Amino acid sequence: MLNKIEHIGIAVKNLESSNALYAKLLGGAHYKIETVESEGVTTSFFKIGDSKVELLQATTPESPIAKFISKHGEGVHHIAFEVNDIDAEIARLTLEGFELIHNKPKPGADGKLIAFLHPKSSGGVLVELCQDIANND
Ligand code: ZN
Asked: N or C: the chain end with fewer CB closer than 10 Å?
């Protein structure tokens, strides 16, 4: 079951200037910056009520974010849904015919286990599932 929109991921070229822009837009500063080496990204997070905005800047030219920006420019990159049991959701969505980029959850930013669905099986939208690591016992 998908609980809620946990965050919206936005690809940016320059985290520093985008942090300033989004702080103005959202009316408050980011609350953390975190690099996820395995994904080639540095992220910053803003709280919006019960949800978040995640800004993503590439750390290497091979980063998926660098590739996304060279193809589409800056902008909305993915929608992340919170789940209680990411393994069960991966199994359910696989049975429903969705193509997973990650068939096994992996550690992501902000204390989450994550898995992405391939946008070609989800209507052109990159979908992330995320579960609090603390819930994963
Ligand atoms: Zn995300």
From this structure: C
Nearest to 129 by CA among 75, 96, 89, 91: 89
Tens digit of each residue's pLDDT (9 = 90 or more) over 65-124? 999 999 999 999 999 999 999 999 999 999 999 999 988 999 988 889 999 999 999 999
Indicate if the alpha-carbon torsion angle 87, 54, 99, 115 is positive or negative.
Answer: negative
Query: Looking at the DSSP assignment, which residues form a beta bridge with residue 2?
Result: 83
Q: Rounded to the nearest whole angstrom, what is the distance from the C-alpha of residue 128 to the centroid of ligand 1?
A: 6
Q: Sheet holding 51-58: strands in order across?
A: 32-36, 41-48, 51-58, 2-11, 75-83, 127-132, 112-117, 106-107
62: pLDDT strictly greater than 80? yes
Centre of ligand 1 to C-alpha 96, Å, is 22
- CB under 5 Å of ion ligand 1: residues: 9, 54, 80, 128
Cα distance between residue 125 and residue 118, in whole Å? 8
Q: For residue 79, how far is its CA from the centre of ligand 1 (angstroms)?
A: 7
